[in-house]
């Protein structure tokens, strides 16, 4: 007994010493300008990514690690400049959520050429081998949760189903749609739903599995490009074209919170739409208020604190010369990228308080009518 305690004490001392050395090492490994981890996020214009910035800042508040966060503002050219800026600062690790998954290839290739370890954050970088790791949520599960929610709330048959998707330049948009299709397609085939706004999806409604090319054709019609304004325009166009048989009590697959609020605002003003269920994701503060107010039905909560922890944990492992732990892999069209994946949580009015307030993700005072 005694000797095993001695061993435990010894191990604790050794691991504390390792942590302390690691902390020194990380600031020491960076160049004189002192940035060891560079973080590039796609845009400040969507609350989702401002959340990530804040969570990175919170996680790094008491740390010795030197980091810099840059936003690309929805432009691959800005993104490339951001990566170059960080390379000039002497970073050892690059954490990057690309604006456009394929276009980011050349930036990460430049980083790799300088010996930098590349971690794709939330969005995969495609068609390149210049990527070491990927931290992500289970994006297929996000789409499945959205589709499942619509199924559970559908009453009767021939419920008009309006489909919307994210940007085709974002690999996640395909994963979300794939997940939603996995569960919705059988319910379209059995007559529960009738697709209201995509001739390409209607043409493929008997196919349980879609190729990427087939999904690309559907996304070409129903993409929001992750832009709420584009979502508004598309929703208005669809409602103008829809006859009374495609109104009444309807279901809307909206890919994320920003587009869900935009689409809900349009559908709620159509007098022939008597009720709607609309999905979302990201647990954005404004959408939590919409859920409390009954204007958005659900969101998929992706706890960004976990993603930040995973990304920084990987970066620190790399700085310390250790191999980060991964749980699987994603093929990016060129290689299998080692990945760490996190689960997601479905939130609606029934569990919003428990999942988002009790978990201290948000404060109750940030909402009314909770
Ligand atoms: C992210 C979503 C986000 C969307 C738009 C996706 O890649 O996974 O959380 O809502 O991009 O920015």
Automatic annotation (TrEMBL):
Segments passing through the bilayer: none
Domain of life: Bacteria
Sequence ranges assigned to domain Periplasmic binding protein in this UniProt record: 37-322
Molecular function terms from GO: carbohydrate binding
Localization annotation: Cell envelope
Chief site of localization: other
InterPro entries: Bact_Solute-Bind_Prot2 (IPR050555), Peripla_BP_I (IPR028082), SBP_2_dom (IPR025997)
Keywords assigned by UniProt, alphabetized: Signal
A Pfam family of this chain: Peripla_BP_4
GO cellular component, one term: outer membrane-bounded periplasmic space
Signal peptide coordinates: 1-22
UniProt protein name: Sugar ABC transporter substrate-binding protein
């Amino acid at each position: 007994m005694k000797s095993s305690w001695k061993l435990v004490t010894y191990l604790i001392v050794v691991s504390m010493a390792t942590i302390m050395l690691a902390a020194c090492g990380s600031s020491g490994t960076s160049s004189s300008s002192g940035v060891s981890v560079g973080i590039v996020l796609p845009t400040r214009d969507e609350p989702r990514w401002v959340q990530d910035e804040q969570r990175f800042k919170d996680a790094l508040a008491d740390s010795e690690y030197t980091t810099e966060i840059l936003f690309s503002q929805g432009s691959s050219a800005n993104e490339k400049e951001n990566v170059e800026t960080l390379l000039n600062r002497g970073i050892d690790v690059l954490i990057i959520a690309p604006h456009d998954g394929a276009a980011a290839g050349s930036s990460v290739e430049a980083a790799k050429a300088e010996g930098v370890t590349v971690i794709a954050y939330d969005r995969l970088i495609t068609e390149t081998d210049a990527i070491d790791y990927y931290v992500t949520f289970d994006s297929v599960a996000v789409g499945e949760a959205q589709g499942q929610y619509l199924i559970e709330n559908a009453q009767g048959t021939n419920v008009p189903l309006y489909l919307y998707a994210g940007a085709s330049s974002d690999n996640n948009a395909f994963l979300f749609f794939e997940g939603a299709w996995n569960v919705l397609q059988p319910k379209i085939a059995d007559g529960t739903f009738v697709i209201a706004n995509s001739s390409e999806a209607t043409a493929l409604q008997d196919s349980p599995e879609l190729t990427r090319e087939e999904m690309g054709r559907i996304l070409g019609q129903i993409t929001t490009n992750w832009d709420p304004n584009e979502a508004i325009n598309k929703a208005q166009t669809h409602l103008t074209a829809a006859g009374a048989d495609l109104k009444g009590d309807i279901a809307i697959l909206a890919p994320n919170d920003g587009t869900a609020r935009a689409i809900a605002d349009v559908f709620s003003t159509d007098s022939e739409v008597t009720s709607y269920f609309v999905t979302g994701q990201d647990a954005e503060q404004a959408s939590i208020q919409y859920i409390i107010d009954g204007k958005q039905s659900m969101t998929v909560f992706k706890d960004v604190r976990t993603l930040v922890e995973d990304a920084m944990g990987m970066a620190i492992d790399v700085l310390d010369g250790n191999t980060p732990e991964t749980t699987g892999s994603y093929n990016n069209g060129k290689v299998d990228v080692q990945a760490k994946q996190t689960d997601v949580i479905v939130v609606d009015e029934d569990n919003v308080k428990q999942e988002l307030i009790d978990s201290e993700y948000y404060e109750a005072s940030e909402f009314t009518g909770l």
